[in-house]
């Protein structure tokens, strides 16, 4: 497994495993504490694992946490997704930068998203399972949602949106969300 810096988002990394494939399928390590530690992250900081399943066209996000924020490791364990990270850390050298990725069950690449960055994705396959490893317990009072179609962000979602939560449909613009949270 190797760590690759994401130049568009300071402190973000892709962790690329080396799957072993044969006639049975494949096997790969999806988390390695030593590799995570090698880029200055504390592998023991992650306290919660979650999983979501989406169908083709479903869009989730853009989400982030107020307060101290929330760092996460995101991996598509089955299917594929169009994944988005937006740096909303006001002191960051990459403030307001966006980065786009295709994460898939074929590659098992994991994206590390630093606290203070918004995250969203759209399922590209009939079924897409997304695994999250999060660095602090979830507190719904800290949830922040930003409109996926905010023109300031101009995210090129690859498919028509087939479904999204009510919270995501009613999300404020980036400017309104930042103003509400005092950023």
Plain-language structure description:
The chain is mainly beta and 183 residues long. The protein contains three helices and 13 strands. It has helices at residues 33-38, 166-169, 174-180, and strands spanning 2-5, 13-16, 20-22, 25-27, 48-54, 59-65, 72-78, 80-87, 98-104, 110-113, 117-123, 128-134, 143-145. The strands form three sheets. Strands 1-2-10-7-12-5 form a six-stranded antiparallel beta sheet. Strands 9-8-11-6-13 form a five-stranded antiparallel beta sheet, with no helix packed on it. Strand 1 (2-5) and strand 2 form a beta hairpin. The longest helix has 7 residues, at 174-180. The relative contact order is 0.24.
Summary tags:
183 residues, mainly beta, six-stranded antiparallel β-sheet, five-stranded antiparallel β-sheet, 3 helices, 13 strands
Shape: globular
Helix content: under 10%
Oligomer: single chain
In spatial order, strands of the major sheet run: 1-2-10-7-12-5
Structural class by secondary-structure content: mainly beta
Any idea what the radius of gyration is?
16 Å
Can you give the mean pLDDT? 95
Give the strand content: 35-45%
Write down the secondary-structure element order. Answer: EEEEHEEEEEEEEEHH
N- to C-terminal distance: 36 Å
Report the strand count.
Answer: 13
Number of separate helices: 3
Unreliable stretches? none
- Main sheet? 6 strands, antiparallel
């Amino acid at each position: 497994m190797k760590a690759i810096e994401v130049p568009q988002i300071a402190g973000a990394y892709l962790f690329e495993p080396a799957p072993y494939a044969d006639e049975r399928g494949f096997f790969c390590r999806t988390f390695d504490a030593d590799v995570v530690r090698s880029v200055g992250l504390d592998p023991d900081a992650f306290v919660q694992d979650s999983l979501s399943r989406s169908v083709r066209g479903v869009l989730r996000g853009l989400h982030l946490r107020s307060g101290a924020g929330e760092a996460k490791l995101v991996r598509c364990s089955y299917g594929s997704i169009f994944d988005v990270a937006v740096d909303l850390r006001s002191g960051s050298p990459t403030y307001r930068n966006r980065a786009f990725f295709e994460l898939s069950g074929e590659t098992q690449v994991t994206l590390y998203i630093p606290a203070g960055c918004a995250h969203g994705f759209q399922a590209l396959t009939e079924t897409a399972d997304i695994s999250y490893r999060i660095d602090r317990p979830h507190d719904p009072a800290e949830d922040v949602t930003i409109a996926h179609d905010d023109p300031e962000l101009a995210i090129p979602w690859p498919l028509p949106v087939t479904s999204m939560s009510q919270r995501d449909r009613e999300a404020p613009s980036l400017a309104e969300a930042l103003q509400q949270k005092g950023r």
